[in-house]
Amino acid sequence: MDVLPRGACGRFDDDLRRLKRTGTVWTAGAHIITAVIGFGVLSLAWAFSQLGWLAAPIVIFLYSFLTYYTSSLLTACYRSGDPKTGRRNSTYMDAVRSNLGGVKANICGVIQFLYLFGVATGYTIAASISMMAIKRSNCFHHSGGENGCHISSNPYMILFGVVQVILSQIPDFSQLRWFSIVADVMSFTYSTVALGLGIYKVAGTSQFHFRGSLTGIRIGNVTPARKIWMCLQALGNIASAYCYSIILIDVQDTIRSPPPEAETMKKAIRVSVAVTTFFYMFHGCIGYAAFGDFAPRNLLTGFGFYNPFWLLDIANTAVVIHLLVAYQVYCHLLFALVEKFASEKFGASQFITKEIIVPIPGFTPYKHNIFRLVWRTIFVILATIISMLLQFVNVNDLVGILGAVGFWPFTVYFPIEVYIVQQKIPKWCARWVGLKILCGACLFISIAGASGSFAGFLHDLKGYKPFETRY
C-alpha cells in the first residue's frame, strides 16, 4: 500500500484509499429514487389495463416487499466479516467476488455490462420520444390536429448522446449526488403532472366514473393469446420499476460512518421503497381509472392527453432532464467497473494512467484522464447508434425485457447467494430452503415476463427499416 502523507490518515476512511465518505440517508435515498422512479412510472397505467384492478396492485405490493427484503440482505454484505470494521466491498461485483468467487463474479460482470448497456439504450430512446412529444404537441396545437406531425427521432437521439458524452466525464459516482436531487425534482414534476391530468380526466366524466375491470382488458378486444402475452409483458414492466439493486452497493459506498453503513442504507431503502410504491400505486390506479382498457403505453407521449399542451411540454422536458441524470447514475457503475479492471490489468500503460492538464485562467488547472475520455465517449456513441437502430422497438417491450432479465439476477439471485455464504447459513435448514424457494419462484416469474416482452419485440420487428422512425 502506498505511504500516505503525514496527517493524511485523518482525512481518509478505514480503507485508506478514499477521502472520508459524506453520504447520508437522504443522499442515498435520492440516488435510489433517481434510479427507481423513471419514465417507467408513466407506463404503469398500461400495465394495470392488462392485469386489472385485482392483480395489478397485488403484483406491485409483492415486488415492493420482495425488493425491500432482498435489498436488506444485500446491504448486510457491504462489509466482509464484521459489519463495522470488516473489509469494504465497494461495488456490486466486489461483494459477489468476495463471497461467491471469481467465476460467478465474471458472470455477474457480463450480465451487468449487457444490462447497463441496455439501460443506456432504453433511456436514449425514451428521451428522444419525450423530445419528439414536445415538438408534436406544439405541432398538433398549431395545426388544430389536422397535421400528422411525423418527425424523425434521429436528431434528438444524437443531441441526447452529445450531452451524455459531456456528463459522462464526471469522474466519480459520489459527485452525482446534487444531480440526483435535481433528477428527483424532475421525476416528481412529470409524475405529478401525469397524475393531475389523470385525476382531471376521471373527474371530468359523468358521476366521477372509474373505468377498468377486475381482470383487465377483455377477451374480444384482444385475442386470448394476445391477452396472455400482454399480461406477461406487464409483469416485466413492473419488474423494471423495481430493478435498482445493481446500484445499491455503489450507493452504500458513499455513506459516512458511524453508524454502520448497513444501518443507514436500510433506512434509505425503507424510505425510497415506500415513496416509490406509493407513487406507482397511485399512478397506476389513476391512469387506469382515467383510460380503462385503452390506457396508452406512456401517459405523456402516448397522447392520452393533448391539452394543456404547455403543461405537457413542461412534463416531457422534466422527463428528458431526469433521464439525462438517471443515465449517468446507472452508467457510472459500468464506467467504474471497466476503469478498475483496466487499471489492474494494464496499470503500466500510459494510455490508462496519463492525464491531460487543461489550464484555466484564474483557477486550478483541470486534469482529465485520457482513457476515461476515450472509452466513455466510445460507449455513449455506441449506445446512441444502437438506439437509432432499435427505435422501432416499443419502449414498453424494451423496458419489459430489461426488467425481466435484470430483476432476477441482480435483485434476487446474487443478493440471496451472497447473503447465504456471508452469514454461513447451513444447507437444508428452514431458512436456506425458504431462500432457495424464493429464488426459484422469482426465476419462473422473470422468465414469464421476459417471454411476454420478447413476443412484443418480435411483433415490433414487422416492417422494420434501419434508422426509420415510427412516430
From TrEMBL:
An example Gene Ontology CC term for this record: membrane
Domain Amino acid transporter transmembrane stretches: 21-456
Keyword Metal-binding: no
Keyword Zinc-finger among record annotations: no
Spans traversing the lipid bilayer: 25-48, 54-78, 113-134, 178-200, 268-290, 310-338, 373-393, 399-421, 433-458
Location(s) in or outside the cell: Membrane
One BP annotation, GO: amino acid transport
Key words of the record: Amino-acid transport, Membrane, Transmembrane, Transmembrane helix, Transport
Name assigned to this protein: Amino acid transporter transmembrane domain-containing protein
Natural source organism: Liquidambar formosana (Formosan gum)
